[in-house]
């Protein structure tokens, strides 16, 4: 009997994904937990393994199709002896197939597997790879296709095409997955084509030399348009919505962190374990939210209500390979310092495997000091009500008991939604966290 593999839940709030490439085709035999498709959500591109085996009978969509959670990704028929067993006892076969997968994390297999390579002939975002081209066969006659966009990697190729009045991404390339190469542009020009398929902007009465300098500039300084991928489009929409909807205000404070650095060293000597400054400040922030819970809120503009959250789901802003993301540590308020440290340390690995929770945060910690800056007018992570920022830790002259001495200093910044609380509440939270940094032993009262 045929079995359907449905698009699973890809994470918090991610209910749809675009098909980037198929790793299998109808007629292929699929093993349990074998990657079968590349999907791009608003946050990442992942290869999705199939939780059961069989022979692919049909695919659930073409490359570029956007599927929603629960949609059919592909259908499989039993293979080999399994087909005979299925005909004799379909329910028993189904149970056996389910028992061999064990894919407890939705959308990801539990068996050891490597990233699958896309086979020649498999459909990809820019079309199928041509077997003759992959084998080194002669390229077809170059042509522009205004209805499609092909991948272009080299800036030289883009510039060469632009100088000759057409867009290189409209030219079907002869590289892998129709990648446009320099030879493709040169072959198109050599073919004698003089009328590009893409419209060119109207020329003004301005002299050619002046027009080129004003629009394009020198050949080494011409503009390049970079299209946003799904992840950056989602981030841009999030930033824009936050700035549009949240009347944010910011308070900041310079803090003497010398004792915190010393306490971290003493903690390592006592336990033999490393504790990062981010984990320590995260623990202070969670304790501060227990005292000032209004900052652990969101604003419901439709009902004009403040939603104060009971649990602290702490977002930790992280600069990943695909841009800024905010993985969420669920119920951070219930974690010990060691548990919070381990959860933060696990973030990079979770991002690399596509298993990080990226939605549902109630408060964000942004350690932009790791980027070498002291402060930032950070954008609140909508729909949260506040974000705590931490600058770099540097040696500065500081007045202690009337004397100027060198101390380790950092800057704390709190951006908050002024609809949710006023400056007094925000300042009280910030000074509490600052007090914990300056005198870490004061946190013992909160544990």
UniProtKB/TrEMBL annotation:
Pfam families on file: 2-oxoacid_dh (PF00198), Biotin_lipoyl (PF00364), E3_binding (PF02817)
Which stretches make up the Lipoyl-binding domain?
2-77
Q: According to its UniProt record, which cofactors does this protein need?
A: (R)-lipoate
Stored SUPFAM superfamilies: CoA-dependent acyltransferases, Peripheral subunit-binding domain of 2-oxo acid dehydrogenase complex, Single hybrid motif
InterPro entries membership: 2-oxoA_DH_lipoyl-BS, 2-oxoacid_DH_actylTfrase, 2-oxoacid_DH_E2_comp, Biotin_lipoyl, CAT-like_dom_sf, E3-bd_dom_sf, PSBD, Single_hybrid_motif
Q: Which UniProt keywords apply?
A: Acyltransferase, Lipoyl, Transferase
Q: What is its EC number?
A: 2.3.1.-
Annotated region (Disordered), positions in chain:
119-149, 191-227
| Highest taxon of source | Bacteria
Q: Which residues form the Peripheral subunit-binding (PSBD) domain?
A: 152-189
Family listed: Belongs to the 2-oxoacid dehydrogenase family.
Q: What is this protein called?
A: Dihydrolipoamide acetyltransferase component of pyruvate dehydrogenase complex
């Amino acid at each position: 009997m045929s079995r359907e593999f449905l698009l699973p839940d890809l994470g918090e709030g991610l209910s749809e994904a675009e098909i980037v490439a198929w790793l299998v085709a109808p007629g292929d035999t699929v093993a349990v937990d074998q990657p079968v498709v590349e999907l791009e959500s608003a946050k990442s591109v992942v290869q999705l393994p199939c939780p059961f085996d069989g022979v692919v009978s049909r695919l659930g969509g073409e490359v570029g199709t956007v599927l929603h959670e629960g949609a059919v990704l592909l259908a499989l028929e039993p293979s080999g002896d399994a087909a005979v067993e299925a005909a004799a006892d379909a329910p028993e076969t189904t149970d056996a197939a389910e028992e061999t997968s064990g894919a407890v994390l939705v959308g990801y297999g539990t068996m050891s597997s490597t990233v699958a390579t896309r086979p020649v002939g498999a459909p990809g975002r820019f079309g199928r790879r041509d077997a003759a081209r992959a084998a080194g066969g002669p390229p077809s006659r170059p042509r522009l296709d205004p209805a499609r966009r092909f991948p272009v990697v080299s800036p030289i190729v883009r510039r060469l095409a632009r100088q000759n009045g057409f867009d290189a991404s409209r030219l079907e390339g002869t590289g892998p997955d129709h990648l446009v190469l320099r030879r493709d542009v040169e072959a198109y020009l050599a073919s004698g084509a003089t009328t590009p398929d893409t419209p060119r902007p109207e020329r003004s009465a301005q002299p050619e030399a002046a027009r080129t300098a004003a629009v394009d500039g020198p050949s080494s300084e011409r503009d390049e348009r970079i299209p946003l991928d799904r992840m950056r489009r989602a981030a841009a929409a999030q930033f824009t919505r936050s700035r549009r909807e949240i009347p944010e205000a910011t308070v900041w404070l310079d803090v003497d962190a010398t004792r915190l650095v010393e306490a971290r060293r003493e903690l390592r000597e006592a336990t033999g374990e490393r504790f990062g400054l981010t984990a320590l400040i995260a623990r202070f922030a969670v304790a501060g939210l227990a005292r000032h819970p209004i900052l652990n809120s969101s604003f419901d503009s439709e009902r004009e209500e403040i939603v104060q959250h009971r649990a602290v789901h702490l977002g930790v802003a992280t600069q990943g390979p695909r841009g800024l993301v905010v993985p969420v540590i669920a119920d951070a308020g219930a974690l010990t310092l060691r548990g919070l440290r381990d959860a933060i340390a696990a973030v990079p690995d979770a991002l690399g495997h596509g298993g990080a929770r990226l939605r549902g945060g109630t408060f964000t910690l942004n350690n932009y000091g790791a980027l070498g800056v002291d402060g930032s007018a950070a954008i609140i992570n909508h729909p949260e009500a506040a974000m705590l920022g931490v600058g770099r830790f540097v040696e500065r002259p500081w007045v202690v008991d009337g004397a100027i001495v060198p101390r380790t200093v950092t800057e704390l910044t709190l951006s908050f939604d002024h609809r949710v609380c006023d400056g007094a509440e925000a300042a009280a939270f910030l000074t509490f966290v600052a007090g914990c940094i300056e005198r870490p032993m004061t946190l013992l009262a909160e544990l």
